[in-house]
Specification:
Distance between the termini: 23 Å
Order of helices and strands: HHHHHHHEEH
Strand content: under 5%
Number of helices: 8
Largest sheet: 2 strands, antiparallel
Radius of gyration: 17 Å
Number of strands: 2
Strand order of the largest sheet: 1-2
């Protein structure tokens, strides 16, 4: 992440809730048929969370489209693929199943958000984290007002089957971020 000018602790906090909920076994059972539908017909037929960071093909496609028009597309050339055809969609699925490529998509997400929201003034790194984590969860292409409204809504569950207490996705990210900062300071 540092190689792509992305603060690792910040990025890890953004995806912590997904890591907490991810189940490799469930992932394999649930997505087999969905991968075939997506590869054959695209995101209109199947858009599902995949891999450790629980990224959807639509999320990756949006990033690819935005990267193609950004100044740093060359930096992320290994994840750029044409998803207008079946071969490209199959490649995208393989990329989303790769932890290394998901890290690249996460880095691209961070850089795109930095660019998109560059005029926004953050009162603190924690405020920025709340916003970026919410954008990751609800869609970074949404308006800033929409993301702000979603920031404190409790709709994220940490259990595999969707039951249990609901949390604001941003609160989980902030909890992890603060915990990491505390551990870093206490180890010094």
């Amino acid at each position: 992440l540092s190689r792509y000018s992305v603060p690792p602790q910040f990025a890890e906090s953004v995806i912590f809730a997904e890591l907490n909920r991810y189940s490799a076994l469930r992932d394999q059972f649930e997505i087999g048929g969905l991968k075939i539908l997506y590869a054959s017909f695209g995101q209109d037929y199947a858009d599902f969370s995949i891999g450790n960071f629980q990224m959807k093909p639509s999320f990756a496609e949006f990033l690819i489209n935005d990267l193609n028009t950004s100044t740093f597309s060359g930096l992320f050339s290994t994840i750029l693929t044409d998803t207008k055809n079946e071969a490209g969609r199959k490649l995208l699925i393989r990329n989303l199943e790769s932890l290394q490529k998901q890290v690249l998509f996460l880095a691209a997400f961070y850089r795109i958000c930095e660019q998109k929201f560059k005029h926004r003034k953050w009162r603190s790194e924690e405020e920025k984290l709340l916003f970026f984590a919410t954008a990751y969860n609800c869609g970074y292409r949404q308006s800033a007002d929409y993301i702000n409204k979603k920031m404190y809504q409790k709709h994220f569950v940490t259990t595999l089957f969707g039951d249990g207490q609901k949390y604001a996705y941003a609160d989980i990210a902030l909890f992890f971020f603060k915990r990491q900062n505390y551990l870093a300071k206490s180890s010094n």
